Structure prediction request, 591 residues.
Amino acid sequence: MATQTFAKGTHPSADDPHVLVEDDYAFYEPIPPYPPRTEREAEFYTLGDGEMFLNMGPQHPSTHGVLRVVLKLDGERVVDIDPVLGYLHRGVEKLVENADYHQTISQVDPLEYISSLFCEWAPVTAYEKLLDVEVPRRAEYIRVLSGELNRISSHALFMGWFALDLGGLTPILWSFIERDEIVEMLAALTGQRMLFNYFRIGGVNGDLNHEFLSRLGDWMSRAVGQVEANTKLLNENEIFVRRASGLGVVDQETAIRLCMTGANLRATGIPFDLRRTHPYSIYPELEFDIPTRSEGDSLARYLLRMEEVKQSLRIIDQCLDKMPDGPIMAKLPRLLRPRPGRAWAAVEGPRGVYGAYAISDGTDQPFRLKIHDPSFIHLQAVGALLPGNLLADTMAIMASLDPVMGGVDK
Amino acid sequence: MDRGLARRLEARFEGALHGQARQRHDQTEIRIGAGDVIEVLRALNDEPELAFTMLVDLAGVDTGAEMQVVYHLWSATTSDWLRVIVEGLSRDDPRIASVTFLWPGAEWMERETYDMFGITFEGNRDLRRIYMPPDYTSFPLRKDFYLPDDAARSPGAGVRHVERTHSPVDAAPGVMRRTGA
Prediction:
């Protein structure tokens, strides 16, 4: 597209307030206006016979955030993609180096805004390892309880999103009923619907209260039936099943080499779930299964997440049953100064492994905090799964891997 | 803590390790030099008694004196996380071999580390900035990159920047200096 560009203020209608002037940077040309920096970039931005570029985003509604993807197309087949990140980059890793240990919890919270509790869980656990703190058992139970609720609400949103990206509007309306109920009860517990800021170093911020427990009890009495009803909407839909099966297939070896984790890895048949393979918190005391599937396609990833919802309900049941009495916070000074050292902690979130690598230099601020987010890895995998598929499958494959741009862009 | 793992690693990589393997909580840590990255990681991945096939994280670290690249690996053969710290990269021109030949999924992690620290991963096919815009020239997570409003470190100096009437006199043009430090 050839657009005539004007320097700022030189457009003929620049002085006329009734004329809307679009600045030249409002157009997203697929080809970057600078020479290629790497061989891969040069190769991507060279068109072969019959190929064309298509720019998608960054405001595309089904990119799950602000993502821009440059697609190289041959007819309607995708040849290659080049995701352009950074539209949501907030520099959290730099900000936490300038905040004290307690403040960092609220800084890392908005990274993954769909399942914030897991974003808090990993760094908090890493800090506890730095400080050699033992977390009270009641706090661990509350963490697992709220975390599994968060997992269900995240998977509910995934179900809606995935169907929406395949062209079905109804499921997201239904799944939001359950998600809304869960975020409301988490709001009763933590004070916030989305960015909970609930976990603390050495425990949690508040004890279970009446409103949370009554809402939870009410919901749990009908949750299994509701989940069944919601999943039936899609699982028995022939259009959905035939569209999603065989789409974006990944095998075991490729999945490991692409560093994939979570449900996307388990959909290939590898039972890798940190709750069992590297147990943390109180998960060794709880009974639940790690469902796996062998197909490795989009449908398998969807069905697996729905299975996980049922396992999470089992875990919540047991947490409520076994919930011990006692304190919810370990005794710690207000100002934390861990002795110099390094700690890594990882938890199993709804999208995969959330990790945090914390380095202390003996002051009250972390020297370095590296956040590992599974969405980042899974978005990268889209580039490996997509070539050869149709343009319309781009979003379907991306949605089945379930990346969230807040986590991708840190 | 898996004592056997530390012994196995020390016996296997005797020449490459800097010091002994350290262990704390559920982590085992080994330190190597930049020249041994390919050899050590390939052995960790390939040999069945180690089988660290999963690269879970790759992080850059600027200690202020040198650059480091840190790998976190997982294996079914041990109950520990393995942390491989590659130390001693120069801050002026940090260079290290890429591990994308083992894990293509490390490509973006290396791009991120390059973007934030300026560490060059030799062998990465696509080493360009990933978060920051292409015309950006700094490496934000380096320790000599200060935030313009460094409020947490200097209470009072950075918080009410609206009320400050002048910029720090010693700030060179275009250089953002930490105020009040």
Q: What stands out?
A: The first strand of chain A starts at residue 51 and ends at 56.
